[in-house]
Amino acid sequence: MAESWSSFDLHLDWRPGDGRRALADALRRAIRDGRLPPGSTVPSTRVLAKDLGMARGTVTRIYADLTAEGYLYTSQGAPTKVTTRGGPALAPPKDDVRPRAAPWVPDVRWDFYPGRPDLSSFPRTAWLSASRRVLHEAPASVFDYSDAYGPIVLRRALAHYLARSRGVVADPERIVVCGGFKHALTTLGRVLADRGEIAFEDPSLPEFRAAATHGGARVTGVPVDEHGIRVSELDSPVVVVTPAHQYPLGVTLAPQRRTALARWASETGGLVIEDDYDGEFRFDREPVGALQALAPERIIYAGTVSKTLSPALGIGWLVLPRALVEPVRAALSESGWRTPMLDHLILADLLTSGVYERHVRQRRAAYRKRRDRLLAALPAGFTPGGISAGLHVVLGFTGVGEAEAIATILRHSVAVDGLGRHWLGEHRRPGLVVGYATPAEHAFGPALDALVTALREISP
């Protein structure tokens, strides 16, 4: 068993008697594991050799080998550093050519990966002003251990905002603030595990299905068509839906399906989890109200600031049926969750002052312009879907496979997502999921040009 050898505040699984090859392997593992992150400086050959009691020439040969392999890079007169790739650039498997998000994809310059807003639009000035007000006015008790379900001032502000803007039946006492929708699903998976199964729309985000599974629930799929989820095929006690703008297809749940889903929950005792992830961003007609209002004791409403402000804040909320409030609060408390009190008070300030809604209206107008520019620039051969709302569009196409299409787009240094990974069953069809909100405002024009150039190469 190798000892844990400490050098320059880094633990390497290496011992002095293991030799040059073992030390090289230990350094490779440290880089791959992230303990030596991309861009970090490694010790000089002289320092490392002295620290480890080795010949300097041995360390020099190790560095030369790791440089040749793509783990390190050197420059005359500058220290040796870990490459920005953190290791050799390996081509993705041919059957799994899909980026996760631009920061995780080497050499991608233009980011159309969906799921995020324009991060450069974060209202820094308004957030800073609200932070000052909160710190000036808040009592000392806000720095104590917080409640697991969120401060009452935020829950009251959310109740007013959700009732007014989304038609949610929202009482502060039935609102629980959490760390985002994935956190909410994991918690609900624990609370509802004894019901046996949670159904998801097919297609849907696999990350969210995994979150429910981690909570302890089993997962199944229910097909989606042009009218939304097929309620008649629902045969599970719990179902997760995105009725305002189905993810990823972008369809809106038809009125008769909304009524049927609420009736199913009321008559069978089932539960609906409504993910209203981008309900504020509707462009071509008035926003569709929340499904929750049709059956408040059978429908759990979930929302976040991930699309309106920033996913980095990690703020989401659940409006729960009364019977689930205490079980969910207990599950959050048992998990060790404590709310980030200051961020929650700042959000409450933005909500009550009207700043949050003004920001949402501004972003709605900006994203609509982006959507229109994207649709106008699309080359022939692509069929856009889900365009009436949200922050993404689905592009259907023919002539090439989805993996080949994504690989072509990546060669143009553009990141998009593929539709294929979202399916559970056999209803698969190829498509590209393009998040037009993601690029910064100043970069949207050149990013769109790069995307269109790549799409022309794919177009039959």
Descriptive overview:
- The chain is an alpha/beta fold.
- Strands 6-13-12-11-10-7-8-9 form an 8-stranded mixed beta sheet, sandwiched between helices. The protein has a 4-stranded antiparallel beta sheet with strand order 14-15-18-17, with helices on one face. A two-stranded antiparallel ribbon has the order 1-2.
- Helix 7 links the parallel strand 7 and strand 8.
- Helix 4 packs across helix 10, helix 5 packs across helix 10 and helix 6 packs across helix 9.
- The radius of gyration is 25 Å and the shape is globular.
- 42% of the residues are buried.
- The N terminus is likely disordered.
Largest sheet: 8 strands, mixed
Which strand-content bin applies to the residues?
Answer: 15-25%
Low-confidence stretches: 1-7, 86-104
- Intertermini distance: 58 Å
Major beta sheet, strand line-up:
6-13-12-11-10-7-8-9
